[in-house]
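Journal club side-thread
Mid-discussion, someone asked how the predicted structure for our own chain would compare to the paper's figures. Pasting it here so we can look after the session.
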Amino acid sequence: MSTTELVKPLTDTAQARHKKPWLTDHRQSFLLMLPTYIAIAIFVYGFISFTVWVSLSNWRTLVRDMSLTSPLLANYSTLFAMPRWQADLRNTLVFTVFFMAMSFLFGLGLAILLDRKLIAGTVMRNVFLFPYALSFVVSGVAWRWIFNPEAGINVLFNILGINAALSALGVAPLQPGWATDPTVVLSLNKALALIFPAIANLQTQFGVPLAIVPVAIAAGWQLSGFVMAMYIGGMATISEEVREAARIDGATEWQVYRSVIIPMLAPVTISLTVLLLHTSLKIFDLVYTMTGTGPGFATDVPAIFVFEMMFKATRYNLASAAAIFMLLAVGCVVIPYLIGSFKESD
């Protein structure tokens, strides 16, 4: 018998011994994670599947009716034909724009001031970050009082003499209704109807509802500290040599931040964009405690719509259809980000 024939069984045995612990470890890992997999399958994907079925069903009273509608997507057609849901989509879009603009503007501004040590470091950093530690419910109650037309910020206009000065000039005093103002400005219905003729038949006025602006201010105030903290963490990873090289090339401090530091913070900006969009799409507690649905649904949002359709109107099929739409909207934001993250990690 040759030497090769003698060595081969020994090699096969060694490989088998080497593979066995690997298989054992993976089997043990799977068994340990099995309860988690079962729980996720039932309480996440199982409930999502049930919600999809309800959104396609005739269940619109306390008596359960799981029969499917005809046509199948009738509930979704009914949902998007409702003026309230149309207003919710408009409010979400306007709220997202104002909320994200304020969060990025103030968050990045504070981060730059702290990075340049124009504001005292640790103490002020904690002060700016403190709002993020508050509950949205607490913030909603506080900001509801601040924007109260009778007892809130409008009182300052009288105390500071602004209204007296305006009256002396023959101008009407400042008394904005804030979150109680049903006015919608910058209407886009006619312009959008030129592109999408179906919009001309909608009952909802697409524009900027003034009542949603105070809500966006409150949300931006609360999240700007979080944005600041993320940007400060990103700035800490940029070496001083990079900054010095830009200064040697003749860049001013503003140009250093505009052309060097801020572009290098692009990964942080992308992460913040996803997180803030996710927060904006599912916002509920701040709006519910601060304004509710507002005058003429001027501050209504999809999460409040789902809550009221589900637990007050018992329109379970419409509530489920709205919930599925929200899930898809959040998925359109989160899934591409996760795919990009997995590709980068590979």
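Post-session note: The longest strand covers residues 184-185.
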